[in-house]
What does this fold into?
Amino acid sequence: AGAARRTPAEELTPAAYRAAMDAKFFSYINVIDPVVKRMAARGSGVVVNIIGNGGKVPATVHIAGGAANAALMLATAGLATAYAGKGIRIVGLNPGLTETERVAEGLQAETRLHGITLEEARQRAVARIPLGRGAQPEEIADAVLFLASAKASYITGVNITMDGLQSPVVV
It folds into this structure.
């Protein structure tokens, strides 16, 4: 669906928060709502929301987008609860640093915030990941494929962190 702009806190305005909710939260909800109702009518289906860790781990350049992510994680769990009895599974996947244009945008915001080069921002980001690298898009796709498959038929209503152990959690 959509993605919110990464913006340093000093550059945020109420309009930026609204734009983040429209770009991230409502773009997902606008798709999920009719789809999940059709799935419920037929009695089966899976929704995998690729959300992002910004809703769990605050970042100074992703406050508005993180708030939208947190709202989407709650909607994921709530909708999963509401539709589980109708044969629907809804799961959230929260990737961390993934080698995409989206991450490049976030690194640009870091350069403005800290007055560092793009390469320094990338090195700092990777240094926070115990696996020592960002994810490849194919790795995220593999996780989505598994979560959408019958092999994950008992997984629903959760938001799974996939960030190379950057944010270890016990749930």
